[in-house]
Design a protein that fits this description.
The chain is of the alpha/beta class. It is built from twelve helices and nine strands. Bound molecules: pyridoxal-5'-phosphate (PLP).
Length: 334
């Protein structure tokens, strides 16, 4: 398949953790309800790693790097319901690595959702109060290295260039599926939060000449280490363009991030997310999560309802997983 990549090594250098390609199919019932559009879905909820999710793609590259560097311990961070941390714990089980998770908040009386799964998967869990984006990772690394471990730190959300390579590769996978299914996708909607997926898809679009427009729906309005998400995404993209030898200039003003649906804050579930979860579940038998995909799917349906994109467009929702968090939000969802 066509690419303008001079060096494929970075794409091929991965440790197998999931089942790919993930399915790509039409949402037939929902397309009937929005007759101006054809709606499709890419099922990264089915990547297969301890209940799936988009982070599996990033972890294939991050875990490979950790193994190549002879590390024996992974440190990463997130919220208590972090899908990234749950998938990291599972990846460490497969790769034979120790896993330490720095999770925001205080230790709860009962573990549920992703927190429960991370614990079952064998992770050592440290509760870090107000810090949910890895602020304490260097201190923990120093402590564990001092005790004789060789630690590899995965950034918040797995979002650096190594992790983003998972989504460069995902564009290659999507392009192959589109050719096979004789399908053209005009718009791709997805939840963007720590930026690695958005950066990887943007790089992949350049490399594999995918013409679809990306509509990343912002999930978390808070900054990460003093940076807005657009800045994080741009930094990863520019590093990628340089390392992959792609001749293209991308500026901050080129980074599109839709911030219309993040106002209530990270992890706050409103009627918007609940309505989106119900709509996909009751029309298509597919489960979204309350934090990421529920919010992003609501955003997409709002775009369609308000006709913010041209009629007759083919629209793809990239389902990024997150199912276990549903059980944390049982009260809101029942
Ligand atoms: C279910 C789900 N969807 C989307 C995302 C966003 O991906 P990224 O952090 O690469 O922006 C995450 C990140 O945690 C997630 O868990």
């Amino acid at each position: 398949m066509g690419s303008n990549l001079q060096n494929d090594n970075m794409i091929d250098n991965r440790f197998n953790l999931g089942f790919f390609p993930t399915p790509l199919h039409e949402l037939k019932n929902l397309s009937k309800k929005y007759p101006d559009y054809n709606i499709f879905i890419k099922r990264d909820d089915n990547t297969g790693l301890a209940s799936g999710g988009n982070k599996t793609r990033k972890l294939e590259y991050l875990i490979k790097q950790a193994l190549d560097e002879n590390c024996d311990t992974i440190i990463t961070a997130g919220a208590q319901q972090s899908n990234h941390c749950r998938q990291t714990a599972a990846a460490c089980s497969i790769a034979g690595l120790k896993c330490h998770l720095l999770l925001g908040g205080e230790k709860p009386k009962v573990y549920d959702g992703n927190l429960l799964l991370s614990s079952i998967l064998g992770a050592d869990i440290h509760f870090t109060g107000d810090n949910r984006k890895g602020e304490d990772k260097e201190a923990l690394k120093n402590k564990l290295d001092y005790k004789g471990n060789k630690c590899f730190v995965i950034p918040y959300g797995g979002s650096n260039l190594t992790g983003a390579m998972g989504f460069v590769n995902a564009v290659k996978e999507l392009k192959e599926q589109l050719i096979k299914q004789k399908l053209k996708v005009d718009y791709i909607f997805f939840a963007s939060s720590s930026g690695g997926m958005q950066a990887g898809l943007t790089l992949g679009k350049e490399i594999y000449q995918l013409n679809s427009k990306l509509i990343p729906i912002n999930i978390d309005k808070d900054e990460t280490n003093g940076l807005a998400l657009e800045e994080v995404v741009l930094t990863i993209i520019n590093e990628g363009l340089h390392k992959l030898n792609v001749n293209k200039n991308i500026q901050l003003s080129d980074i599109y991030l839709n911030r219309d649906y993040d106002k209530n804050g990270y992890g706050i579930v409103t009627n918007n997310e609940i309505n989106a979860i119900n709509k996909l579940a009751k029309n298509e038998g597919i489960l979204l999560d309350p934090v990421y995909t529920g919010r992003a799917f609501y955003g997409m349906l709002d775009f369609l309802k308000e006709k913010r994109i041209p009629s007759n467009s083919n629209v793809l929702f990239w389902h990024t997983g997150g199912l276990p968090a549903i059980f944390k939000y049982a009260n809101e969802l029942k």
